Amino acid sequence: MIDADFDHMALAAPDRSELNRRYAGDLGATFVTNGATAGLYATIVRFSNGVRLEAIEPYGVEQDDFLVRFLARHGPGFHHITFVVPNVEAAAKESEARGYRILGSRTEHLTEVFLHPKEALGVVVQYVEPRDYSGATEPPGFPTGSSGANLDHVALVVGSLDEARRLFVDLLSGQETALERGRAARWADVSWRAPGTLRLLEPEVGSPLSTWLGDRSGAVHHLAFTVDDPDAVPDAVPMGEGLWTVAPDRNLGVRLHLRLSRIAAPIS
Question: Are 229 and 186 in contact (CB under 8 A)?
Fold first, then answer.
């Protein structure tokens, strides 16, 4: 087992300012840091419950055009989940020993690697060593909002809960809640020491969720939030039973589920 901890999730778009307007401006996340590396420019924000989200756009593509190619192939949307580990090289070796392919540079001073999404439930999983996010200055004109939303979980629909547990619990040391069952799926939440929860949903055969997943091993279905006033979130549509949703085509490829802050019912 790797001593991993949740760090952040990343969403990709051609222009990260559009992501910032949604997650900072509409949902009230606060600025943490920003910066560039070969292939991308990133801004990280933090929600009221401490969960961090990274907005990335292509940058320095003459050095690395991986994000341009991703956007051309998939369009904007969920890109990766990042876990912080004590030693990336050791984590990479342990992952390979368990049958996961590793992407990324393998140098003397290795700082980050990725699990191949074909073996990681369709999601790019990144390992990094501890980073210091303090000291960044919020850029002028950065969007601000009063919502103060909580990002409750990332809903990852999987073909097999056992395979999902093998990765997120057995390898990455997540703590799993008791299994629950609804009309469309059974699910469990997995969390770590730092704020951030994955809801792993295995759909019932023949359900709309199963049809949506198709033959994929896994895919992110939505981000679940609690907010003070879902009606104030642009593009949010009431669905009944205290749920509002923002469709992927109205939100750069990512579906949002919104609940009132005072409602504690789980989102499945």
Answer: no
pTM beyond 0.90: the answer is yes
Please list, residue by residue across 153-181, b when 16 or more beta carbons sit within 10 angstroms of its beta carbon and e when fewer do: bbbbbbbebebbbbbbbebbbbebeeeee
Give the integer Cα–Cα distance in Å for 196 and 123. Answer: 16
- Predicted confidence at residue 106, as pLDDT, reads 54
Quick check: 150 and 174 in contact, CB under 8 A?
A: no
- What does the pLDDT read at residue 69? 95
Given pLDDT bands bounded at 50, 70 and 90, which one contains residue 37?
A: confident
Please give the structure tokens belonging to residue 74: 């998939």
Is residue 160 domain-resident? yes
Does 103 share its domain with 177? no
Q: Is 134 inside a domain boundary? A: no
Q: Is there a domain that residue 143 lies in?
A: no
CB proximity list for 49: less than 8 A, separation 6 or greater:
150, 151, 152, 195
Report the alpha-carbon distance of residue 54 to residue 124 in Å, rounded. Answer: 14
